[in-house]
């Protein structure tokens, strides 16, 4: 046999479907309302601009490889030990590092049916096998996850709340899941939307991480803090897990702008509160008004809603997407998440939200 003529990716890499982000373009001449990537309508805290100007004056310098100023700010605001925090180039990077550090070929990692798509990508990239737990009513189900556990299971990835459904599991269910998992299985609580959740029975995972050696929580600055463009995430984990990931990450995985901006943003609690109040009011109103139009809306606790369209020719999600797009409203197709006939809509500004409601009313009347 002859040698391959060119370098080949390792087995499995070309079976991975690349992540396709939400669209971000409106037709020429139409004002764009981008509601496709769960970004905040409020932008970043005004404090961020001043922090960035300082950094911009010294771009020749390497950033602090430990992102110390950012860890310190997170530790202070959330009252956590900085030694248990690791920052990443988006929480995506941290999810990938967890997969790299804990999964080998032959291992299995579990995610749920309509779970966030990057878990599957990182599990496969690590050479391991994704195992999909079914959901019930578009919500993760503890018993279904537990039924997937085998001696090969190494990680359970759970977005809480989940994207794109917006559903969540209450703390008691997460505890029941954890209690039944073998001690060598890592439970990854992806709490990207935690700040938006206003439910008494919800916990992002801070206490569970503190009390256990096999639980980590990931968070992001991309949503409530309005810094998606700078790529900043963080993880709370047992120190030995922080140590393991510190060994394999890029030495300067956060750039200097990200470190400074994140530290400024997280201290601006007024900005966060304003965003949460707006989201709360609109989440309720969008759910109510979209339902009144005859569309089924999955009950969400995040900053987005999953809207299901009728199976009627001319009124499907694809038709709605085309109709909205020509008017400048960009929602997210979620076919890749197993929802061929739904669109995910980010809670936007009042103007954008009202615009979508008006356009959908026209669309459904035609
Ligand atoms: N987890 C979930 C559930 C998400 O929806 C997202 C953003 N789409 C992320 C993680 C990643 O966020 P980032 O990498 O921007 O921190």
From TrEMBL:
NCBIfam families: hisC
Top EC class of this enzyme: transferase
InterPro entries in alphabetical order: Aminotransferase_I/II_large (IPR004839), HisP_aminotrans (IPR005861), HistidinolP_aminotransfase (IPR050106), PyrdxlP-dep_Trfase (IPR015424), PyrdxlP-dep_Trfase_major (IPR015421), PyrdxlP-dep_Trfase_small (IPR015422)
Top-level taxon in the UniProt lineage: Bacteria
EC annotation from Swiss-Prot or TrEMBL: 2.6.1.9
Subunit and partners: Homodimer.
GO molecular function terms noted in the UniProt entry: histidinol-phosphate transaminase activity; pyridoxal phosphate binding
Domain Aminotransferase class I/classII large span(s) in chain numbering: 34-357
Gene3D superfamilies: Aspartate Aminotransferase, domain 1 (3.90.1150.10), Type I PLP-dependent aspartate aminotransferase-like (Major domain) (3.40.640.10)
Annotated transmembrane regions: none
Phylogenetic placement of the source organism: Bacteria, Pseudomonadati, Pseudomonadota, Alphaproteobacteria, Hyphomicrobiales
GO BP, one annotated term: L-histidine biosynthetic process
Full protein name: Histidinol-phosphate aminotransferase
Pathway(s) where this gene product acts: Amino-acid biosynthesis; L-histidine biosynthesis; L-histidine from 5-phospho-alpha-D-ribose 1-diphosphate: step 7/9
